[in-house]
Amino acid sequence: MNDTLPPVIVGAGPAGICAAKTLVAAGLRPIVIDEGFRAGGQIYRRPFVDDGRSATDLYGSEAAKATRLHREFDGLLPSIDYMPQALVWNIAGNELHLMADGKHHQIGFQNLILSTGATDRILPFPGWTLPGVYTLGAAQTALKVQGCTIGRNVVFLGSGPLLYLVAWQYVKAGGNVAAVLDTAPFSAKLNLLSAFRFDPRLVLIGMSYAARLVSRGVKIRYNVRPTRVDGSQYVEGLSFKSGTKVHSIACDAIAYGFALRPETQLADLSGCTFRFDDRDRTWLPVTDEAGRTSSQGVYLAGDGSGIAGADAAEISGELAALALIQDSGTTVDPGRMSALVKARRRKAGLRDILEKAFPFPDNWFDQIPGYTKLCRCEEVTVSTVIDTINGGELRELNRLKALSRSGMGRCQGRMCSAAMAEVLSATQHLKLADIGRLRAQAPVKPLPLLLQEGGS
Amino acid sequence: MSAHHSRSQFQRHFRRDEAHVPFSIDGIAYSGRRGDTVLVAIMSATDRLRLSEFTAEPRAGFCLIGACQDCFVTLACGRRVRACTTPLEAQMAFVTRERGNE
């Protein structure tokens, strides 16, 4: 084995940037591979062209962190090998397969830090595939990166800290917010009081969004369940249940989601052991507190190893890099490592409380009609999925995928795997932990069929 | 179904005065702005990206970060691109199935 292979980092969000900085400080020259045009990840993503907005306009209360990370990464450029707009689509043994500039590349590695981030966690309801319905993250990206709102009059729906943040960002940018519809009861928000001891600044900022929305006349409703999107070609309104009553509200766009889900496909392909996490209702790669996995030389950082937010991603990025350096036989400052581990634990404590304040909705599928599309790629309905489960007495997710085609489309289950798991567990009265998890498949995202050889 | 969908879904709040970038959908001329993704250019001019393969229902993307793969569009040369992560280039010519192009 070649002893001089450089460490590789996949993903250039807050975790990847901090990992790169730490490796460079130790005298290493990492390869940083990122799908984005510019480093920053989703949260600190930068517009393609300057549109006159300041960092505060773009990143709000997190502007200073965004600016610092962008500056740090730009400063690292002479000391790293940076591959933007590059998709790692497979890990085979100790080799990464990627597409960059329309060409195929293979990169061998001994040490790999995966900081692959997260996507919106989604559940289906009637009409969710209509033009004008987007994820909360999409609504935020449209505004932050492209300076657009997803419609003229937008309903914000679901659960999670993004719900109030993005609604406020839309109001501030001059968009009209028709309503904020929280699927959680108001009482859930009282949990935020116990988050004060972990991060009073964050809690105050978070609560201020709701207050500012109300002061601008935006209606906030709690304990809501959407019944359908109104309209046949595009969004014309939203019907929803609040208590026992059904209401309709006019709007031309809907932004919705239920917090985030980690992107774990590459960790899976690298052979990492997974465990079921009750709080996040999903399978996560097993790591130690520094981000070491069960796969030799593979480290995880950021939301891709479990949703914990951008500040925790910075901490875990540095920790994973220090673990890598330590495992390569170089001494690291033990005080620094234990301080980072402690800081990471505090962030995890905060995350426990946020999950209670912005909970995943219970019994979602009790009120979802069978004709609802569960899988938007292959257009498989909820009733087809339930019939497939009952007909085959299925008890395992990969069988359900094989027989129903749900989860088999282009998104590889990113948008439907949470729904598949909830339906299978409810239909068969099994625990989520007992129905398995969708295996990652290469390529993790679609590739053009003709890829030129680009070298190693 | 008409190929003209003059109702714009997205609303621009910034970069309104950027240089115009011409493109077309089924031969009809539109213009985006410098710095647009393909998705933002199309959705700021019309209200859909494509028709779904199974039910021919309109689709317009979903996640905008390259994860859901819902926003692919087809260029006249036959190449498919993911609209949310592809920068708009002048003279891009998109084709849809709306006028029997496929």
TrEMBL record, chain A:
The keyword Plastid does not apply. Residues 375-425 form the BFD-like [2Fe-2S]-binding domain. Residues 8-313 form the FAD/NAD(P)-binding domain. PANTHER family: ANAEROBIC GLYCEROL-3-PHOSPHATE DEHYDROGENASE SUBUNIT B. It comes from the Bacteria. The keyword Signal does not apply. Keywords: Oxidoreductase. Coiled coil: none annotated. It comes from Phyllobacterium myrsinacearum. One of its GO terms (molecular function) is oxidoreductase activity. The lineage of its organism: Bacteria, Pseudomonadati, Pseudomonadota, Alphaproteobacteria, Hyphomicrobiales. This is FAD/NAD(P)-binding oxidoreductase. InterPro entries: BFD-like_2Fe2S-bd_dom, BFD-like_2Fe2S-bd_dom_sf, FAD/NAD-bd_sf, FAD/NAD-binding_dom, Metab_Enz_Cyan_OpOx_G3PDH, Opine_Oxase_asu/HCN_bsu.
